[in-house]
Amino acid sequence: MAEFRQRGQDITVEVTRDFDLFKIFDCGQAFRFRRQGSEVIGVAFGRVLRMSQEGQLLTIYDCTAAEYLGGIEQYLSLDMDYGEILEQLDTDAVMSAAIGAGRGIRILKQELWEMLITFIISQNNNIPRITKLVEALCVHYGKPLSYNGEILYTFPDPFALSRATEAELTELKFGYRAGYIVGFVQSVLDGGFELSRLSQLDTPEARKYLLGVKGIGGKVADCILLFGMARYEVCPHDVWVKRIFSERYNIDDVSEKKGYALATAKWGKYAGIAQQLLFYAERYEGALQAAAQ
DNA sequence: ACCCAGGCTATCC
DNA sequence: GGATAGCATGGG
Fold first, then answer.
1. Which of A112, A120, A108, A75 lies closest to A194, judged by CA?
2. Which residue in A251, A250, A243 sits closest to A279, CA to CA?
3. pLDDT of residue A290
4. Strand C positions closer than 7 A to protein CB
5. Which one of A23, A109, A173, A219 is the catalytic residue?
6. Terminus of chain A with fewer CB atoms < 10 Å: N or C?
7. Which residues does residue A145 pair with via DSSP β-bridges, in sequence order?
8. A115-129 pLDDT, tens digit each
9. pLDDT tens digit sequence for A35-48
10. Residue A196 has pLDDT above 70, yes or no
11. Containing H/E element for A147?
């Protein structure tokens, strides 16, 4: 979709106003990237990913055309037309305000395994601490990557993570999530839980399969479906969405079930994208007050 | 000290 | 089926 070209060791991509590198990596969906001046740097797919954006020019450093076309283009959703999606979502004043604040956000297509573990960690936790705990997993169990004189770490695969004992994770301050992670990693290794099967199931079946894991409930399952499986119709029902329904849409006491029905009715197959925009606008920008009646 | 964070499990009815 | 206590940790 987006035009790209190879320039030296880098890839440059002509993007639209519907792509904002900094919002994408700072909207609560990715926990392994940091902004460094005009650049965003982190690790995905076992490699360092360093990017910058100036206006409509996105640069992906140290990246071949094969790597770009082989995954990074999709990872960044550069093969999708978000302008069209935002237009479809823009159906009321609250959502208009969310789009105003959040335009440029895209749902990354992150690795399923990483999303499974990351969102088990996320439960009843805040973003800075989630970031800290995920990083601790990578430093202790991932592979070191040397990059421009600094060491970054990959996200550990199931086998690497199976070295982690519950005692070690407790030592790393995982709290009661330590047991969830150890148990889940074990079930993936012994074949009790199959990632390949999960990816093949339709969304309701996949959700049920996820709910069978101890430590994964409805909200975590939905984040995994949305961020790790590109199921854009899934709208994670977290405390922020409840708050937005209540305070911005004036719909009180929204249960999880009612929340899904509302989200589907309002935003259809892009409810997850709508949710991410609302989340960003409310959480980071405080941009929804004026739009609420 | 209390409340909250991208909630879940166990247990109650 | 729905409601509620308890859970680890750290920041405000």
1. A112
2. A243
3. 67
4. 2-3, 7-11
5. A219
6. C
7. A152
8. 999 999 999 999 999
9. 999 999 999 999 99
10. yes
11. strand A144-147
